[in-house]
Amino acid sequence: MYKNTRITCLFILGLTCQFSLADETNTPTADTARIRLFGQNGFGVKLYENSSCVGGKSETVSGGIGDAFASFVGAASNKSIGMPATPNSEHPSARNGFLSKAFFREYAITPQQPVTITSSFSSNPGTNNSLECRKLATTFTPEAGKDYEVSLELTPTRCEQVINEIHATTDGVMLEPVPAVKAESCH
Which residues pair with 173 in a beta bridge? Predict the structure, then answer.
């Protein structure tokens, strides 16, 4: 999946090495598509590859204990495979909350097979100004050689899972909404 792998480490004894998981080509191959998902403390995000429903094998993008703690203490980091930068990925800190550092993860996914993404968020639970989004689930079918970005957009009164295709242009990037449908439970 990764074309160039370098390892960077700093040891007390002075030994060093480099490690990079970035795909230097910045273009998905004809037999893959790529997807970028955002997370942070307080957000749950899961990716179900090759599935048009919620259930079964998934990749936890955000919502695990390790990611929540890293986001809480401001140590969460992005994981890129070389997708084109967008305003969201160039400035994830714009999404930061109190004790909640935003980050993104990029994945190579199988094209022409459905992908389901679930997102959840809760702020100020039990108060009059709480916003709660429980398991928003959408599914779409990625196309070969294309890049996608999924984010959870919040307003004071609602949450929306947004899926965009990333188009590289001579002026930068353009985000185009991708048709998606509500995903149901597999059971």
Answer: 168
Task: Give the residue numbers spanning the domain of 60.
Answer: 27-182
Alpha-carbon span 142 to 27, nearest angstrom = 15
**All residues at 6 or more sequence positions from 65 whose CB lies less than 8 Å from its CB, including other chains:** none
Q: How far apart are the first and last CA of the chain?
A: 32
Measured CA to CA, the distance from residue 63 to residue 117 in angstroms comes to 13
Q: Is residue 143 part of a domain?
A: yes
Q: Is the dihedral of CA 95, 160, 39, 181 positive or negative?
A: negative
H or E element at residue 169 = strand 159-169
Residue with tokens 């993860």: 105
Q: The whole model's pTM is what? A: 0.75
User: What is the residue type of 63?
Assistant: G
Chain segment 97-116, per-residue pLDDT in tens: 656 677 889 999 999 999 99
Of 125, 122, 120, 135, nearest to 54 by C-alpha is 135
Closest CA to 38 of 107, 99, 84, 138: 107
Residue 14 included in any domain: no
